[in-house]
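so my prof wants the structure for this chain in the tokens format not the other one, which i didnt know existed until like an hour ago. anyway here's the sequence
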Amino acid sequence: MVRQLPDYPWDTLAPYIAKAKAHPEGFADLSVGSPVDPAPDSAQRGLLSGAAAGSYPTTQGTEQLRRAICDWYLDSRGVTITPDCVIPTIGSKELVALLPFFLGLGSGDTIVIPEIAYPSYEMGAAFVGAEVVRADDPADWPESTRLIWINSPANPHGRVLNTAELKQRVARAKELGAVLASDECYAEFGWDEPWQTERIPSVLDPAVTDSHSGLLSVYSLSKQSNLAAYRAAFIAGDSELIAAILRIRKHAGLMLPYPVQTALESALPDTEHTREQRLRYQRRREILLPAVVNAGWEVSDSEAGLYLWASNGTDCWEQIAKLADAGIIAGPGAFYGYAGQQHIRLAITATDSDIELAAKRLAAL
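here's what i got, hopefully its the right format
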């Protein structure tokens, strides 16, 4: 029997999208946060270099790709890992949703997720019938916990966990004997101090832990490199966990296509395109942020990442309707948990013209 799941949340936004699109002077889509800028030349060249391959790719990824991932962790995150500690994945969402299955979790197990969280963490638990506990404070994590998801910088609200906070979470996970998985896909986008000048820490950072046992780091090039269409991501950490996950992925045939592997390998050392993309998003944020505040919304957290987490004190659906009337599509905070019921999420990933249009419409409000 097919397991019953709730409706896909973004489908419920359809009437508001239709209302915004009906605006006579056009609309601005600040909802999903899909990249709109082109994939970097390095990734495109890498994709073409692997396009002639006809045989099956390996689930583990090529040796060259895994070494490129290791080099990236050292250069960008200050983390030392070896090629046997990484696996390329088909985007990060499939890994997030399937990790409870890979770890053999099920009924009677508890998965902890943030109080305000990306919906796929909860769906991963639903797929295996595990219980979900939303708790940010490690002291509130129950003894039955087998997997903990943290997200820093967080989607949707952009809060960053500093080194001390990460150490606290790692210590509690080890005390429980639970796997701690850290979703770090927005780590290149810190806006407020200290993250404008300091590296956002990874859960694998030596300043956080001297052992990667029980720890996993998830990263994607969808945001930093505009490779959402490529589905190019990877997981790294505890070598024993990686080996167990790899074994299951081999049986399931979860292989990153070879041309995407060569694209990922080419894009990772190309730090210039990441810097350029960061500047694009910074400019868009500098236009949108004051417009949102001046229109009566309070922006909280949002110190990093690609979204503004905002509230005017009313129910999120009232805010969504108000913006839709102005031809602006945003994301309802309710998608991310009850604690987000009075918030909306606005993406800075839209085109320059859409950001400017949204700012103009907000000024009119």
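also thought this was worth mentioning. The two ends are 50 Å apart (CA to CA).
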